[in-house]
Amino acid sequence: MHARIVIVDDRSTNLRVYAQYVAMMGPAFSAKCFHSAIEALQWLETETADLLVIDYRMPEMNGAEFIAKIRSRTVGAHIPAIIITARQDRECRITALDAGATDFLQSPVSHIEFRDRALLLLGQHYPQQELKQSLENNRSGSDGDDKSSKSMLEQIIDTTPILINATDRNGKFLFLNSYQAALFGREPDQLVGRSISEIMEPDLVERETQRNNAIFETASSIPNFEEKFISEGIELIFQCNKSPLLNQDNQTIGILTTGLDITARKFAEEHRTHLALHDMLTGLPNRTLLAQWMRTAIDQSNASGQAAALLLLDLDRFKVINDTRGHQTGDVLLRQVAERLISALDSNGFAARIGGDEFAIVLQNLDDYGSAAAVCTELLAKIGDPYSIGGVEQTIGASIGIARIPEDGTSPDELLRLADLAMYEAKSAGRNCFCFFSPHMNHIAQMNAGIESDLRDALNSDQLFLEYQPIVDTTSGNYVGLEALVRWNHPVRGRLCPSDFINVANDSGLIGRMGTWVIEAVCKQIALFAEEGIELPHIAVNVSPKQFQYSAMCSEMLNLVSKYAIPRGKLAIEITEELLIDNSQKVHEQLATLRAGGIQISIDDFGTGYSSLQYLRDLPATRLKIDQTFVSRIETSSADRAIITTIAHLAHALNMRVVAEGVETEAQFTLLRTSGCDEVQGYLLGRPLSVHDLYNLFKDGAEPFTLAAQ
Where is the PAS domain (predicted)? Predict the structure, then answer.
């Protein structure tokens, strides 16, 4: 049998690809392609198709509207239809499903996916059509005389697409219409007088007998129950009703059974339920179904005394892959990760995707929590194996947090919260590892929640203030810069440094407001000193990677520079290598905008991250700041001296100055100057200065720093 597949897509590239997929299926399959949905509908008025493949987004009508028009017709309404969509929107899919879509494929579609889905639907379609033809043949009858001999009522009953039968007290058929008889592959006359036990499956016979006996005992009907029938290998679902057949004396002498085929409706309902409970990208259960399974695991653990665990797994640096290789590559990677999670779990494990690059796993029937640790080790190994995506090898890691059931909690929401705390602890420990929840984490989380609330108040009530750490030129000793350091005068806890609150500011999203406050405070200070005739060197401000996620950051910073008339080069920002690797292209554009606006750029803590030389070559940076871990070992480690010298040569080749942080001894100062460092800062040069101390240092022109003066 030849199968004709109609493809409708307004994009020529897609049509060529899908037509090629059909050709690869073999000579028994052919493709008919249409750019226009309207033209396809017109063609289908006179031609037949065995399968429809429709793009969801088209200019004339979307895929759901196209399917609805097909389903409204008498001819062709039965044709299976695949919707292809790049969208992961659940409402989009439900709309298409309600219109009559049979299946979905996520774009981009591979040849294997296309072939497998097409063959599956065609394999279901042909037997259904053969059964339908058989039913129609049985309804019409093979002998015109037989048809004419039946009463009009009998003809109506025979041609109605509803199963109708009557049985006596012994379960023998008194009557069947042609539709019912065709389900068993017989003529009605062949079945009348025979028992249901001779014709139906044993399980069905048992259910039918129980229902019939109940009616004989009570003389009451049984309305609206569902029953399955198998006909020629096809499972059909009917909504049935049973009622008593009464004689003239109002005695029950038999049972009348009717049934309406609701197979298509049940499929749609099941598909809708699946969409509501599963992630569309990976096919894994979603957060809703996860909560149901967690409640089951909690109940079973309480009843059996066996341990269970919730694992929260977050992919490390997944955003880098999305940003550098695109969201389609990211989607492929997520699907492959999901497959590896499933392959690593046995029947006691349950995996779900709960959003983004975050997955949850429920482990049940554990002998001890060491078993959960073993599963985590296996998961990390499987996830860490290279992936091949589009012919390019890709690697990724994961961080896993573990909450113990019922030891740590007995509600799904609480367990998710605790596993999330443990997962972030794993990330803090270096990523690509797992960590069990501990009460200490909860204590820190509660304390951080308090800090977040207090920090909001601090931003509204002038509790924050700045201090300034001097930066000195190694050759001249002149003060060539300052680094602005934010402090918090907490009403209860007193003076707090950034290490006490900066992580909370980042995690809570307050870092944006804080960053804007710091930049404006620095601009105000430069302007106020200038009004008094005091010229400060450039002032550097630390900028968090999260601040670059706010689209208005660049414009806000440049507006403040303009508002306070800050000269070019007087304001600098310090960024970290983490920012460069996670957001290279987007950040490069923002940094170029700032640099063009006269703001200097320093790369802070250089040597501790993972940025490549290409980033350094392409970025408009003006300074590299060597992390103090190298500086602290420069007197005892020749390797660290060599690293610092190499960084200095590299920076100078890229026209950048080199700044060393954390300088505390004269020996360090001398070695850094010898190694090529242009500028230094640290306690040797002076501790962070208040505004008052800053005024005293620069009011008459700061004297150069000299080692002899120390």
Answer: 149-203
Closest Cα partner for 540 from 498, 576, 572? 572
pLDDT digits (tens, 9 = 90+) for 71-128: 887 666 778 889 888 766 666 777 887 788 888 887 778 788 888 788 877 766 655 5
Q: Which residue has the higher pLDDT, 524 or 131?
A: 524
CB of 208 closer than 8 Å to CB of 200: yes
Strand extents, DSSP E, 419-561: 434-436, 464-473, 479-490, 494-496, 538-542
- Distance, in Å, from the CA atom of 650 to the CA atom of 630, rounded to the nearest integer, reads 16
pLDDT of residue 144: 45
Classify residue 351 as left (phi > 0), alpha (psi -120 to 50) or beta. beta
306-320 core/surface letters (b: 16 or more CB in 10 A; e: else): ebbbbbbbbbbbbeb
Residue range(s) in the chain whose domain bears CATH number 3.20.20.450: 450-695
Tokens of 563: 């508002």
| Mean pLDDT of all residues belonging to the chain | 85
Q: What is the pLDDT of residues 35-59, one digit of tens each?
A: 999 999 999 988 989 899 999 888 8
607: left (phi over 0), alpha (psi -120 to 50) or beta: left
Query: Residues 443-488: pLDDT tens digits?
Result: 666 666 678 888 888 888 889 999 999 999 999 999 999 999 999 9
Confidence of residue 438 (pLDDT cuts 50, 70, 90): confident
- Residue carrying the six token digits 């023998």: 172
CATH 3.40.50.2300 fits 3-127, yes or no: yes
Q: How far apart are CA 543 and CA 522, in angstroms?
A: 13
CATH 3.30.70.60 describes domain 450-695: no
CATH fold for the domain made of 151-267: Beta-Lactamase (3.30.450)
What is the distance between the alpha carbons of residues 393 and 390, in angstroms, rounded to a whole number?
Answer: 8
Whole-number pLDDT of residue 261: 84
383 in Cβ contact with 337 (< 8 Å): yes
Partners of 238 in the β-ladder: 227, 261
According to DSSP, the β-strands at 479-490 and 387-389 are unpaired
How open is the CA angle 242-246-250, to the nearest 5 degrees? Answer: 135
- Pair 193, 172: CB distance under 8 Å: yes
CATH 3.30.450.20 positions along the chain are: 151-267
Burial 333-352 (b: 16+ CB within 10 A, else e): bbebbbebbeebbeeebbbb
H helical segments located in 486-563 = 502-508, 511-531, 553-563
Residue type, 141: G
Q: How confident is the model at residue 612 (pLDDT cuts 50, 70, 90)?
A: low
Specify the fold of 277-437. Answer: Alpha-Beta Plaits (3.30.70)
